[in-house]
Amino acid sequence: MNRFLSHTIFALAVSCTAMTAPSMAASRVAAVDRIVAVVNSDVITSVQLRDRVEQITRQVQRQGGQLPPADVLERQILERLIIEQAQLQLARETSLRVDDATLERAIARIAENNRISATELRATLERDGVSWSRFRDEIRTEILLTRLREREVDSRIVVTDAEIDNFLQNNPDAFSGSEYLVAHILMRAPESASPEQIARLRERAERALSRLRAGEAFGRVAADSSDAPDSVNGGSLGWRERDRLPALYADAARDLQPGQVSPVLRSAAGLHIIQLVDKRGGAAAGPEQLEQTRARHILIKTSEVLSDTDAEARLRALRERIVNGGDFAELAKANSADLSAARGGDLGWLNPGDTVPEFERAMNALRPGEVSPVVRSPFGWHLIQVMERRLQDVTDERKRNAARNILRDRKADEAYEDWVRQLRDSTYVENRLERE
Fold first, then answer.
1. What pTM was computed for the model?
2. Distance between CA atoms of residues 125 and 134, nearest Å
3. What is the pLDDT of residues 230-265, one digit of tens each?
4. DSSP strand pairing (35-39 vs 236-241)
5. 3-state secondary structure of 231
6. Pick from 338, 356, 354, 358: nearest CA to 346
């Protein structure tokens, strides 16, 4: 199963308002709203842009990051809003939606992860000047964009055994435990960019590289120059195992010492510069014995014609039949939307981490033979039955599964960047901010 993109809206929402609610209201009264961009049939207003700029500014200041000049930051965030709006339009046009029950569960998980109740979460947000309705809208949007990515990109990623063999052969030091702290600058290229466009991008990249070689801080140059969404955070990708970096970055970082900067790199997405900020670890793992679980499941996916509520009700009815003596395998063959349906829902032997957290938590709570309650994951609704458990030496298998996940993540990230670029290029955009 593909990895689930975890939601971090709570931290963002709590950090997004240092001003009080009355002062925000006053600023809204004083501001004159106007259209700063047209995105197909929708608009982005100056108030929307200003709110997002203020949110990002407070977030970066709290994290001690460096901000670009105000006009550069405004342009960067407007571009981010344009891409977000284009994605939301596509979700709306294809009837992708997030119902209230899903939203409430997500908010409950956010509160639980922050070790507070939903009531305390609401009080915290409102004390910091974030209205409850605004917070709910942000969560709904985050879930919707995640589901859109899963449908349009992640679900189409395929990793072959030959690709895994090739990765393991060419990366003998893989899974050594080495972690890299990398920052990057991206000069995004439009789809089917002309030689002239690439030449202009290269000029921008070379100017940025010259500033870096002259001793300017990478975070400052990234904030000024990068087209990546993380530019306002100095382009930092955080600590990652080298194998978890994009292949282009992993190969470049191998030849760098901490503090060094790469030359300009080229990919389908555009031009890149990376800095290896630091690295740590490196002890290779020895033989590994793990408890494996053999499980089977029935998956019901939501769609334009099947809501979350209906999918959950359908699985509850199937569970009732199984508890009363129904054959799990036969019901899986007849009802499951997963490729495992033909095998009666059998997923084979699973290692810890092979499934998304929601699925794994429910599975681990079961005794052999026991059927779970209805479980929600990013892929839909599940019934899970544990068939048996065993201890197994999984060193080689673990490496192959880890390689598969690495390759899938790399492909998904690259495919997502390409998909976003194509969506942006096919969207009608009238940027009125650039006229001023």
1. 0.60
2. 10
3. 887 888 888 888 878 888 998 899 889 999 999 999
4. unpaired
5. helix
6. 338
